Amino acid sequence: MTKQESIERLHNAGWTSRQISHVMNVINEDCKGDVCWPSITERLLDREPIEHITGYDYFMNLKLHVSKDVLLPRPETEDLVAHFFQQIPLSATDKISMLDIGTGSGCIALALKQRYSTSQVHAIDICPKALAIAEKNSQMHDLNLSLRECDILKLNDWEVEKLKYIVSNPPYIPPSERPIMALTPLSYEPPLALFADEEDPLIFYRHIGLLGQKALLPKGEIWVECGFKQGRPVSELFTNQGYTTSMYKDTNSIYRFVRAIK
Q1: 182 falls in which pLDDT band (50, 70, 90)?
Q2: Full set of structural domains in the chain with CATH
Q3: pTM for this one?
């Protein structure tokens, strides 16, 4: 199969010209050597993300190793980090500590470390394979992270130095939506990084807030991404925990990000 035959198969399967152009550009950029077009085409038709096929994805200006063990970086998460960059000046981060909860590929933590180079950036995840990917990306960009295997739902205290900032894109999708997602590329991503508790969908935010009460410095801050209908409930949850909160919109003008100041 040639590249042109692959394009024709994708087109006949209902792919738009924009979708086809995107995957071809990614393949040209990230696939080295001979391309096995029959295999790639079948994987694309099975809705496997192109990033899993090439093994790379991009976040802000960082090229990252990715795998089925980590959540692929999202444009909305770039929006979260962009808001953080806009609100937190470099002068406020000299030699302070930050924590990325649920780091996955390390995308948030690495973006923070790249911008705030004098800060100590900690990153935790429940999945050892995800931490291995984050370490690989840390080494690729020569950005030092303090990585640790940890379950936020069982983390009751932070025994390291006090934190100035906690940043997180935690799981927030109800498990009841899993059958719908089986028909999308999301079915290839790790459930641990996607799904919250059906009866308590804000459970991760609640535990992040509780950790912040113990681990944050006075006036320390929490920054989180949430579902497109969860901005106000998450803000109210943090308010009830004693934080002063504000919300920020994504590029679609939806309140997807919450800032909570201790």
Answers
A1: low
A2: 3-65 (no CATH), 75-261 (3.40.50.150)
A3: 0.90
